[in-house]
Amino acid sequence: xxxxxxxxxxxxxxxxxxxxSDTAQTSGMRRVEAISGATVGSRNLWMGQTHxxxxxxxxxxxxxxxxxxxxxxSGNPSFVFLDEEKGEIRVDTKPGDYIYVPxxxxxxxxxxxxxxxxxxxxxxxxxxxxxVNVPDLKWIGPVAVGTAEA
Length: 150
What we know:
Layout: E1 30-35, H1 37-40, E2 46-52, E3 56-57, E4 61-62, E5 68-74, E6 78-83, E7 87-92, E8 98-101, E9 107-111, E10 118-124, E11 131-133, E12 147-149
Antiparallel strand pairs: 1-2, 2-10, 3-9, 4-11, 5-8, 5-10, 6-7, 6-9, 11-12
């Protein structure tokens, strides 16, 4: 089988018990990787899960050039970003909801539930999980600044 032969490639099955935590992380949450360049050889896609424990907030971060799609599996996580005129905006969600995070937008996830973990499925338009942890939700120049973790 050759990569140049797109008609004879195989499908990849990633069982839930084999998800890897060997991916970029942000405080207050745990990311696990399912589909990436490292796991299946994807060229333009990263997919995995994020778990936020009960009564926990993640650190502020953005995903660089990557667009991010989020599907809420369980819990009622809130997604927080900064509107320069209105201040912090909270988007409260429930299972079955979707969130779109544009490239470079600093945000954080919050789980206000005192008893239940929030779990979301994440898909990104890059093969690796770009995560840039930042001190706050403010933008500085065309790109929010921080330290990249890969």
